[in-house]
Structures are given as C-alpha cells and as structure tokens.
C-alpha cells in the first residue's frame, strides 16, 4: 500500500509521533531535512555527470568529482533539470544539457512546462560522491518548512556545496525546532541573508543568477491562506530563475489538500515530500507545480501511526492489480469468460460503440454484443467480425432492451448513444432498472444532469466514468471548479449517487461508497485522444465479469494508463496515440501484470 495523507492527517501523524511515540520534533525535522539533502545530492551528482534522468542511487557506481574549471569555462557545477531514476527513465520531454551545462530562461520555461509527470521514489540515502560541486540557494520561511530548509542547508554545506540561505523574515521570527536548526547552520559557518518584508529582492535575484539550484523552503503543508505581498514577490523571483528548483514537502503556495495554488505558488522542477505523499500533489495542477516527487521517510515506523491517523487515499500499485488477474481454468468457455452488452452508438456515432466493444474483447470478455438503434444497426453489422449486434426497436423499447440484457454479466452504456428522449428512456431502463453490473459513461451520464440523486435508486451496481466536464454537469458546476477540487467533487458525486465514481483525467481518481479513494499515477498526455474514454468503459465492463466492481474499476484504470505509458516508451512521443491502439496493448499488459513483471521493462 502507498498511502496518501491530507493536511490534517499529516499534522496528526507528526503530533502522534512526537507526543505518543516520544520522537522529538527536532528529530523528525532532522530526518526530513537529511532525506531531502540525500535526494538533492543525488540530483547534483547526476547533473555534474551530465546524465539527464539519472542519479547515483544505491547499486549505481560512484562517479568521480569533476575537475575544477579552466579559466573562462563555466563551472562544472552548473546543473540541468533532473529526476531520480524510478524505472521509467528520464521524465517526459527532458532534453540533454547544453555544452556549458546552464540552461537559458527560454529552456527553463519549456522544461517547467514539461514537468508534469510525478514519480514516487524512496530516498536514495547518501548516494553521491563528495564533495558536491554546486552553488545552492535555500529560500526559507520562518516556520517549520524553513527549519527543514536549514537542515538541508547544513547537510549540503557539510558535503562540500556552496550554500547561501535567504530568510524571508526577520531572524527573531524563527522559533522552536526551526530556531535550533537556524542557529546550528549559522554557528557552523553557514551564510545567511535576511529578506524581511520591505527589503529589496535584488540580492536574491543576483544569487539565483549564479546558482545551480534553489531550494524552496518557504511554506509547507500547513499553509491555508493565499500568499500575497512580499512573499508573493519572493516566489515571483524564484519562478523567474533559470536554475533548478526543488521544493520541500510541497511547493510553497500549493494547497496540500486540493492541489490548487493559494495565490502565488512556486513552480518546482522536483519536490521532496516528507513521510508520505500529500493528496494535493496528485492532482493535475499539483503535479504540474511539483514536478517529480520524491518521498523520504521520517525515521519512524509507519504502522502504528497510520493505524491511528488513517489515510485519505491510496496509490494504485501494479502488484495489487496483478493479484486480481487470476489465470483462467483450462475448461473455460466464452460465456464464462464474460458476456458483455455494449449499449452505445447512433447514426454518425458508431465509432464510439465499436471502440467500447473491441476494448471489452481485448480485456478478456468472451462474448460482446453491441446493442444500438435499429436505424444504425445495419451500418454497424457491416463493420464487425468478432462482435455481435442487436437492435433497439423504439416501438418496443423496453422489451427489446430486456431481450438484449438477458444473460449478460455486465453492461457498458453511453458512448455515442444520443441525447434525445428515446435515448433517455433507454438509459433509465438499463441504468436504473436492470439488476446487474453497469459502467455508465458519456451520453448516459449526461441524461442524469439535474437529477444525479436518481442514480442512488438504481438496481444492481454502478460504476460512473465521467471526465471533469461531465462530472461538473452532474454536480451543477463548471469543469474548472471540478479541477480545482477533484477530490471534493468526486466525494460529493459518490455521496449523491452511491456509486463507484471514476473521475478521469491526469491522475485519475477512483472513489468508492465506503469512503476509500485510489489514485492512478500512471498515464501521460498521449491518452488525451478521442475515444480513449470509450475504450476505458469497455475495459472495465469486461473486467467486471471476473472481479468485484472496485477491483474492476481500479484494474481498468491502471491498465488503460499503462497502455499510454508503454506506447510512449516505444514511440518516444506524447501525442498521436489512437484509441484503438490502447485496446491492442491490453492483452500484453494483463499478461505482464499477472506475471508480476513491470510492463515498462518488457
């Protein structure tokens, strides 16, 4: 299990460790800062070695320190955006460092625009060859996040880096555990410059112009108000810098729960988060601001504390999904393998039905039938081979639907089905009246705009698969409002409908009626292609034939996302994927996951 915590849960985690487990707060701060220094050290060594996307992790050979620069040459410490290796290679869109190692302002902006993927990796643990060759600026606040920054600064100073801390507050504002680490850093010879409100920011701008790396230690997870004024100006200077930016815990200005920026927010290239992932890092906007995410532990056993404070969500793991994919009995026949009905398609929209049905076949269903309107059925029949078709007679709508539903194990309904009155009557009959397992997508969801609570009265079980626009229409708000609080929106939808809700998009969220949530961290922008959601609906319907609904939703989402990652790994592109190609990759992914193999390594 990879737990994800909310702001309140992480605060309770620290409090329980300090007061019930008697781990001093200054020890937790030391462990957090040292873990971050380890990650930063690995990034520095990878950059000085000129290997984008690589780091000196355990098991990697140590690299010699670079020689001192010749007169007139750029220092060997000049850095380029990096990520620790986590099995997926360089992050999407990474580009090799230029000969002198330092990127231009234009390159920096382009790199940050590409810094969307999030990687979950453990702390590597002192992975670099010392001394470090880098100029590091730490921008610290007066709170605990600033205290973490002072620990990082001390460790990097001890490892040979050239470090300067800018404190965005008067020193007397630093108290408690943060004060201890503030004083330790200074008394060990660390350079500190105060930038209280009203102070000019030119010294910070000058330092960043010469720095290889800046550490954002202004605000952590406790921030719950917009950043304005002087501190917003400080963040503006950080974001304008061309050096690599690494945030501690969360990028300053990011709401740790919703993932929305609170006024000004730091755009980081990398984020080192402490103890556990924070839920706000796993939204599309949170992921964009955080860049690559590295999780370092706090030096305390998790079990007892998590049992007390709980967690708000879990990250979907390939190992878990692989355990759902059991081998079939040798004697299985097509009806046992899965009998799926796809209620979809209409004149001019037959492609959606075909994509859904073929995805169900590729996901293991033994028999798939497309149920569509009588006026569209002849055109459908001329385009299918392995699939069967059946027609809906508008004059005998309920009777023809009941005949099509007989004997089915699961139904996918909605893609391209239409939004007229006859379609609404058909959707109501199937979604609300049929006592079976249903995946409700696209047009079928739209028929419940203005009456989402009707879904709570449905017989059987429902899996709803909206994107943010469809969910917004169900909840009576804009797509943007949903994206600003994806977790709150999906919880509201579950409460209204009593269904499993799959909120599609970057970092797809699966929310269950029992309160559990799962987040998919796989996938990439190549999946933003017409018909991709239709394919997912068919995949989940097929998996419903052999799994419990929550498992089928989780497996379908992860396999669908991994298909996008495998395609990108093979093509090197983040665009041009066809929805039909997603389905073609599914059998190989199922085989790899069932065997316990990493699909991306095959």
TrEMBL record:
Q: Which residue intervals define the domain YjeF N-terminal in the entry?
A: 10-306
Biased amino acid composition, Low complexity? 53-63
Task: Write out the entry's keywords from A to Z.
Answer: ATP-binding, Isomerase, Lyase, Metal-binding, NAD, NADP, Nucleotide-binding, Potassium
Q: Region Disordered: list its residue ranges.
A: 53-110
The EC number(s) this enzyme carries: 4.2.1.136, 5.1.99.6
* One GO-annotated biological process of the protein: metabolite repair
Coiled-coil residue windows: none
Per the annotation, how and in what number is the cofactor bound? Answer: Binds 1 potassium ion per subunit.
**Residues at which K(+) binds:** 145, 216, 252
Keyword Repeat listed? The answer is no
NCBIfam families in the record, alphabetically? yjeF_cterm, yjeF_nterm
Q: What is this protein called?
A: Multifunctional fusion protein
The gene name on file is: nnrD
